[in-house]
């Protein structure tokens, strides 16, 4: 297959691109605008591969999208391009409305125009896979409740509201126009190549630099953590085996409170980097509780039974194995994250927001 992936230079998108090029015989067309979170240095291992192509295109640009479809003739689309940082959505929601809603609409229309012209076998085999988040469901009240594929939507932030809107658009294009779509909603991802404004990499890098580890509120917000390479496998499984019109929740079966995640990172760093920054006795001493974010959801947890039962996917990493791999990766790849922090990876700078996205 030839797979068109939007947002393929982002954190999850680049993991999907690497997975497909390194583990399958399929080809990838990476369509990415290269905003601040898009980083082609996350794709150096595949950038010269004969089955990989890159197009710097904004998904809101219909003319450019039409050209990409006409030139590359993809067999499926995997739509990952999105603004995804909750704190940024609170400070400036307009970009989230534009990319996540208008961009998804524009991509759906470009895809529909292309799909309408395919011959019958290609039309039948085509898929539009929309990758979304568990944040569209809001938060869970009980300690035993789980998000299922039929949980009602109740988004809390401009980010999650814009993603909920895009989910509804995708399903409407199936119902109204017959475009063959499938939707996945995932829990919090973590792992290599994660942009340093997010919780886990921010804590790792701040600790190494002897800076404060800012934790919102009491740190008891619970998230289900999914190792990004497990997620990449799940997404490829869905786009190749998933049923049209279905939704699949993807989770790591790893519920952890944010403060537990931060303390786990501190414990690993005590083992792996015992020589601490000057003036730091213990990494945990750097933990600082800060004012909670407006509308902060308390608990997310995914019921991933369906994708396991119907498509045979299960996560390979526990949180303990995944977080160790993640911390070790950041220790081994200072060049990558240093270039993100100083802005040299891109014309765009990291920006002033340094508190991190805690889900």
What does this structure look like?
The chain is of the alpha/beta class. The protein has a domain at 2-194 and 227-253 and 296-317: Rossmann fold (3-Layer(aba) Sandwich), CATH 3.40.50. It has 12 helices and 12 strands. The strands form 3 sheets. Strands 3-2-1-4-5-6-10 form a 7-stranded parallel beta sheet, with helices on both faces. Strands 7-9-11 form a 3-stranded mixed beta sheet. Strands 8-12 form a two-stranded parallel ribbon. Helix 6 (158-177) links the parallel strand 5 (127-133) and strand 6 (181-186). Helix 1 packs across helix 8 (228-241). The longest helix has 23 residues, at 94-116. The radius of gyration is 20 Å and the shape is globular. The chain starts with a strand and ends in an 18-residue tail after the last helix. The model is unreliable at 347-359 (pLDDT under 50).
The chain-level mean pLDDT equals: 93
Give the strand line-up of the largest sheet.
3-2-1-4-5-6-10
What fraction strand? 15-25%
Secondary structure class reads: alpha/beta
Rg: 20 Å
Could you state the order of secondary-structure elements as H and E? EHEEHEHHHEHEEHEEHEEHEHHH
Q: Enumerate how many helices there are, as a single number.
A: 12
The quaternary organization reads as single chain
Low-confidence stretches are 347-359
Shape: globular
What is the CATH class designation of the domain at 2-194 and 227-253 and 296-317? Alpha Beta
What is the secondary structure topology, with strand pairs?
Blueprint: E1 2-6, H1 11-23, E2 27-31, E3 52-55, H2 62-72, E4 76-79, H3 86-91, H4 94-116, H5 120-125, E5 127-133, H6 158-177, E6 181-186, E7 188-190, H7 199-208, E8 213-216, E9 222-227, H8 228-241, E10 247-250, E11 255-257, H9 258-272, E12 287-290, H10 305-311, H11 319-332, H12 334-341
Parallel strand pairs: 1-2, 1-4, 2-3, 4-5, 5-6, 6-10, 7-9, 8-12
Antiparallel strand pairs: 9-11
């Amino acid at each position: 297959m030839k797979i068109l992936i939007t947002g393929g230079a982002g954190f999850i998108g680049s993991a999907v691109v690497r997975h497909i090029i390194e583990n399958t015989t399929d080809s990838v067309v990476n369509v990415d605008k290269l905003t601040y979170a898009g980083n082609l240095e996350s794709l150096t291992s595949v950038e010269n591969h004969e089955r990989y192509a890159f197009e710097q295109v904004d998904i809101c640009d219909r003319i450019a999208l039409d050209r990409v479809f006409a030139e590359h003739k993809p067999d499926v689309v995997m739509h990952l391009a999105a603004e995804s940082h909750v704190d940024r959505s609170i400070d400036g929601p307009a970009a989230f409305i534009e990319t996540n809603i208008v961009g998804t609409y524009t991509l759906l229309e470009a895809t529909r125009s292309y799909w309408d012209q395919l011959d019958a076998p290609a039309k039948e085999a085509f898929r539009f896979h929309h990758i979304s988040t568990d944040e569209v469901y809001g938060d869970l009240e009980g300690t035993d409740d789980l998000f299922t594929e039929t949980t009602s939507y109740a988004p809390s932030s401009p980010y999650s509201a814009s993603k909920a809107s895009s989910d509804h658009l995708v399903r409407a294009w199936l119902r109204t126009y017959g475009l063959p779509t499938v939707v996945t909603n995932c829990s919090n991802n973590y792992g290599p190549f994660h942009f340093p404004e997010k919780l886990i990499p921010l804590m790792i890098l701040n600790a190494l630099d002897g800076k404060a580890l800012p934790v919102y509120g009491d740190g008891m917000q619970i998230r289900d953590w999914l190792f990004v390479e497990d997620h990449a496998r799940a997404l490829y499984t869905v786009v190749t085996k998933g049923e049209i019109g279905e939704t699949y929740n993807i989770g790591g079966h790893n519920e952890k409170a944010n403060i537990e995640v931060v303390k786990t990172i501190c414990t690993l760093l005590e083992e792996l980097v015992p020589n601490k920054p000057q003036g730091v006795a213990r990494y945990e001493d750097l933990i600082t509780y800060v004012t909670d974010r407006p509308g902060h959801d308390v608990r997310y947890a995914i019921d991933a039974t369906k994708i396991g039962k119907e498509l045979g996917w299960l996560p390979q990493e526990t949180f303990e194995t995944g977080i160790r791999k993640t911390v070790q990766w950041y220790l081994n790849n200072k060049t990558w994250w240093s270039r993100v922090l100083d802005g040299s990876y891109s014309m765009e700078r990291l920006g002033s927001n340094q508190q991190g996205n805690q889900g």
